Here is the input.
Amino acid sequence: MASLSPKRRRRDLDSAATEARTPTIAVSPSTDVIFEILSWLPPRSLGRCRCVSRNWRDIISNPAFVAAHMSRAEPLLVAKTSDSHHWSLQLMDTEGTPVRVSSLAGAWTFQASLDDLAYITFRNRDSVTPAVVNLATGVTLTNLPKQTVLEYYTLTYMGFGRTAQSGVYKLLRLRMTNRTQTCDILTVGDNVEWRRTRPPPMIARQSYASPPVALDGALHVLSRDENCVLCFDLESEKWQAIHGPQGGVIRVKEPISIAQLNGTLCIAQMEPYLINIWLLSDSKSNVWVKAYTIPTRRKVVKHVLPLRVLRLGGGLIFYFYGNNAKPKLKVYNPSLRRCTAVKTPANLIGTIGLCSADIYSNVDLVTSPN
Here is the structure.
């Protein structure tokens, strides 16, 4: 290779020296880029980001940013936790970080959550009082008719939902007595009395781990006898049957659960070392699609509850427990086919629900670093 001329060599050395003396200028992302990234963060993480700089604090405090963040915020997780024989309702973000804890004196069970409300029960000696509670404030909105503890345990199956057209909240009660199934309905705020209505065409499968699922103005429960999901329209108060996935996925002795996943009815089927999740893609034609096959290290998984497909990253957050194992929250990444653990309360009891309560404006989490 021909050697460089003395003049060219001197020019290259001078250019290198000039570059060495010139400071490197870091290009900062624009305000729009920072706005977009921060608007996807959970509230607690956002509170910490507020301390980074004055510019970030001004962005986060802007009303336009708050509106964008609230439109992208994931629903909160609602969990029952127990501590020294006293239990609370704990609201968490999808990272498992506590956002609010509501201690409710005398509360006994957490049945279901919908919108910003929760259906719970209070126990006083031999009686049980159902109630609807506002999750944002912790205020009990209404106490429903009492029942004895014996009546409560007589294979009672409870559901909480909202009608599609009128927006009225209703409670459904299925009970088994002497091999006869009865069905009662209660309209919250309407004289607070149970009304007898027509029972489902098939026997509902009793499962406290998989309560009725509220979706599109109806409550959905598993059938015990056939490969069907029973659907109760809360407006017309009529039943219909939705056939399950082909292949008889719903069987009496198998661990099966149902849930609503981002507005779609789904079935979680547990097999040895596998969890299959089916989505109802077309309710009129009873078309189901196997959307997820999640590998597990456990041969037996007693219960799985799909909760949410996260907007950021597309991971599936779900709740599960196996034999002699504590309940856990995990996120399944379908691209990597791998699960990662989510921080789960050590004193978690029972199932987990979702809550769309706007509690951030009350506790100022969006603009508070603590």
Notes: The chain has a mean pLDDT of 80. The two ends are 65 Å apart (CA to CA).
